[in-house]
Structures are given as structure tokens and as C-alpha cells.
């Protein structure tokens, strides 16, 4: 773990909405004693608006631009854990910045489990779990392409954190 983190410095979580990036990102940061940056809440703090409102009022492209700027700021840091939004992988420039300074962990959680959660505050899903499966088909190759390692989020959180700490 030490050698790989010395090379890359940050830990970055990618994965589908609801895959556990925020929850496991925070827990991993606590275990490492590092700061935690979560791009969706950071965008909300910066704009004073909800992500869903930005999508509905300004459109997805405007949100993606805010997301890229937020990722750029996070990537100025070192020895931090970063949770990205589920769609961050759709912009290659995001992934180039994150990969330059971070070890990328793809959190893979079964879609049926994610679909059983509340999806209403996720604008691209709009409460329709079928869209989750369509998005996953589009994004799975991207998550796999960019990840340094894949962690299956299929156990209790404390167990998954241990797996993550071993993987980094
Ligand atoms: N292994 C797990 N066991 C139990 N609950 C889990 C597990 N992983 C995630 N969860 C729960 O699933 C929900 C979604 O997780 P979380 O918000 O961390 O996902 P996310 O990837 O950050 O989603 P988004 O991309 O929408 O921000 C949370 O309520 C979280 O506590
Ligand atoms: O999957 C997506 O494209 C998104 C996921 C969320 O984390 C937010 O970043 C936003 O709702 C877009
Ligand atoms: Mg999150």
C-alpha cells in the first residue's frame, strides 16, 4: 500500500450513483487520517444550489463544467480522498486529472441493490430504475478502463473498507 500511495498520493472513488463512493470515501479518509472531498456536495456549496436544480435549470453540460472545475480544485491537493459524481467518467479530462495524482478505485455494487435505494434525488435517473441499467451499460467500460482496481461493494461497510485499504 505504502509504495503505491507514495507514487500517486490521492485515493479517488468512481462508480455508479449509489455505489457507495461518498460513504466509503469518508470512511477510508477517516482510516487514513486524510481529508475527504466529495464533488457533488462541493458543487452545491459553491453554487448554493442543489445538483438536481442545476441539471433542471441550466442543463447537464453546465453541471459537467462545474464538476470539471471542482475536480480540478480537488486535484491540487495531496493525501486526500476524493469521491466523484457518478458521471465524472464521461469527461476524459476529468479522468486525466484524477489519474495523474490519484489511485482510482471503482466501487462495483450490484444494480439491483442500488435500484432498491431512493433514486429520486438523482436527476439522470428521475426515480426510474430502468435508466440505471442503461447508464450502467454505457459507463461500465469507462469505470473499468480508468480504474486501478475494482472493489466489489457487497459486504458490510466495515468489511469493504478493509478491502479498500488492502487494495490501495
Ligand atoms: N456496503 C454497504 N452496506 C450498507 N449500505 C451501503 C453500503 N454501501 C453503500 N451503502 C448505502 O447506500 C447508499 C448510497 O451510498 P452513497 O451515497 O455513498 O453512494 P454514492 O456512490 O456516493 O452515490 P452518488 O453518486 O449518488 O453520490 C447510502 O445510504 C449508503 O450508506
Ligand atoms: O451519474 C451521474 O451522471 C450523476 C451522478 C451524481 O453523483 C451527480 O453528480 C449528478 O446527479 C450526475
Ligand atoms: Mg455521493
Automatic annotation (TrEMBL):
PROSITE patterns recorded: SHIKIMATE_KINASE
Keyword Transmembrane among UniProt keywords: no
Pfam families: SKI
Residues that coordinate or bind substrate: 40, 64, 86, 139
Keywords: Amino-acid biosynthesis, Aromatic amino acid biosynthesis, ATP-binding, Cytoplasm, Kinase, Magnesium, Metal-binding, Nucleotide-binding, Transferase
Binding annotation for Mg(2+): 22
SUPFAM superfamilies xref list: P-loop containing nucleoside triphosphate hydrolases (SSF52540)
Assigned EC number: 2.7.1.71
GO BP, sorted A to Z: amino acid biosynthetic process; aromatic amino acid family biosynthetic process; chorismate biosynthetic process
Compartments where found: Cytoplasm
Pathway the protein acts in: Metabolic intermediate biosynthesis; chorismate biosynthesis; chorismate from D-erythrose 4-phosphate and phosphoenolpyruvate: step 5/7
Subunit details: Monomer.
Protein name: Shikimate kinase
Amino acid at each position: 500500500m505504502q509504495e503505491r500511495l507514495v507514487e500517486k498520493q490521492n485515493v479517488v472513488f468512481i462508480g455508479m450513483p449509489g455505489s457507495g463512493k461518498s460513504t466509503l470515501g469518508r470512511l477510508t479518509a477517516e482510516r487514513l487520517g486524510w481529508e475527504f472531498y466529495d464533488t457533488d456536495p462541493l458543487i452545491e456549496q459553491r453554487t448554493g444550489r442543489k445538483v438536481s436544480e442545476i441539471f433542471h435549470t441550466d442543463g447537464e453540460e453546465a453541471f459537467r463544467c462545474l464538476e470539471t472545475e471542482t475536480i480540478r480544485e480537488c486535484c491540487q491537493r495531496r493525501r486526500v480522498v476524493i469521491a466523484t459524481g457518478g458521471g465524472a467518467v464521461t469527461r476524459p479530462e476529468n479522468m486525466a486529472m484524477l489519474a495523474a495524482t490519484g489511485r482510482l478505485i471503482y466501487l462495483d455494487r450490484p444494480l439491483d441493490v442500488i435500484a432498491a435505494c431512493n433514486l429520486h434525488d438523482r436527476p439522470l435517473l428521475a426515480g426510474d430504475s430502468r435508466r440505471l441499467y442503461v447508464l450502467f451499460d454505457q459507463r461500465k467500460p469507462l469505470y473499468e478502463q480508468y480504474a486501478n482496481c475494482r472493489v466489489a461493494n457487497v459486504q458490510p461497510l466495515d468489511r469493504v473498507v478493509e478491502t479498500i485499504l488492502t487494495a490501495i
